[in-house]
Amino acid sequence: MSRAEFLRLAMAGAIGLGIGASARDGNASAPQGISTRLHTRVIPSSGERLPVIGVGTWQTFDVGASPAERQPLRATLEALFAAGGSVVDSSPMYGRSEAVAGDLLAEMGARDKAFIATKVWTRGREEGIRQMRRSMDLLRTERIDLMQIHNLLDWRTHLATLRAWKEEGRIRYLGITHYTASAFADMEAVMRAEQLDFVQLNYSLDDREAEARLLPLAAERGIAVIVNQPFGGGGLLRSLVRTPLPPWAGEIGCDSWAQVLLKYVLGHPAVTVAIPGTAQPRHMIDNCRAGIGVLPDAAMRRTMAAWWAQR
Predict the structure, then answer these.
(1) 54, exposed or middle or buried, with CB in 10 Å at 0-12, 13-18, 19+?
(2) How far apart (Å, rounded) are the C-alpha atoms in residues 44 and 87?
(3) Burial 56-92, CB ≥16 within 10 A → b, else e
(4) Which of 112, 113, 247, 298 makes a 20 to 30 Å CA pair with 212?
(5) In the chain, what are the domains?
(6) 47: Cβ–Cβ under 8 A, 6 or more apart, which residues?
(7) Could you give the C-alpha distances from 25 to 33, 240, 251, 290, 295, in angstroms and in order?
(8) What is the pLDDT of residues 172-217, one digit of tens each?
């Protein structure tokens, strides 16, 4: 057995033990039972189910070609897939991330395990087509699971192309994205006017504006929701590092702040999947543990929000 094969097997064992331990530890406070694989949510436009935890590739996958840079990312993807996850989200604006993700999925023979989401981020029909074809080449796939219009840039032009591509089978789903609440009014207008499969937006315990209009609208319109920045862009998680977990964290099976923050987001019934970015397998394992077992109900989410407001 090669060293690389040994490390992969060791990682798979650690993933299984970590997730299994979480299920066992949480079972005492979860009388309704706990699964050792990720919860799934329905994509309203198709009925297909998606695991609730994925991975974002902004910054984290923008690396070179050396084994030292790429091996942790491969192990991160292995951790995601071992837990039953599938969503890998990227964009042409993320530097080398599309190429790195495509290379790793091909090397792992894992294209069938991944739900590949990327974006078009340019102006003009022909330039948009050129960019999307380039993304397919970099991701080493003939069909993208989800193509999104990044930050609503030239969305009317690209939406027409995406509808045609969906009809042709080049993409499976289409959607729009943004990362800041200042764009929510524009996103709301598009969501009301157009038929979309997905919307991707920012949402976290310290940034709950999406709860007011966009999440209820997504549920009303049958649009799946991908949450970016569930850790508040990283700042929220860093701010809590030295803060002890509140007693109620154990009631929802959490033993880390990452799990608490992700479970708050996943507790909203309109959310389909959260995609925290990471380049570390241990963080991916921790993130996945948030997607199993008990998720907070409305009362617990109020408790969590009240705790944040009074901290």
Answers:
(1) buried
(2) 16
(3) bbbebbbbeeeeeebebbbbbbbbbbbbbbbbbbbbb
(4) 247
(5) 3-29+51-310 (3.20.20.100)
(6) none
(7) 12, 23, 11, 13, 15
(8) 999 999 999 999 999 999 999 999 999 999 999 999 999 999 999 9
